[in-house]
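Students often ask why we bother encoding 3D structure as a string. The short answer is that it lets us treat folding as translation between two languages. Here is a chain of 170 residues written in the first language.
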Amino acid sequence: MNRLLVVVDMQKDFIDGSLGTSQAQAIVANVKKKIEEYQAAGDDVIFTLDTHEHNYMDTQEGKNLPVLHCVKGTAGWELADVLKEIPGRRFEKNTFASTAVGEYAASGNYESIELIGLCTDICVISNALLIKAFLPETPVLVDSSCCAGVTPESHENALNSMKMCQVTIL
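And here it is in the second language, the structure alphabet:
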């Protein structure tokens, strides 16, 4: 089987940094296990990295979410310690979804594409729907046990929204 796993923004600032939550901390072991399963099967694993500069607060996102996070080159921008040595292409993105990830997925002739990571209600849903737009006939899946939202309620809302858009929730 030729599958793709997209690991979304498993960065320190979203886990235990400026925007960290206990729910995000709780999924790290599940995420690592899922990555290992994909790699053991010979499937592709890629990572997205939320990437901002020091002028973040001057951007539209910064004005709407005034918490400095994932500034390139800082400790908070790095992947979680247990993930950062894992091989896989990295895609830096300065917004919620990455068109480069969509293009990469579309070029791979994958039988399915699964997303895991942070935050369910912002970047995971954005990338899942973007990939679905690139590949409407390819199954897109999200493993809810490997995702966390800004809040538990917004996590559930995002999962329900993705279901309505024909993303399979595991």
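Translate back mentally: Residues 66 and 138 are 36 Å apart (CA to CA). Keep this in mind for the problem set.
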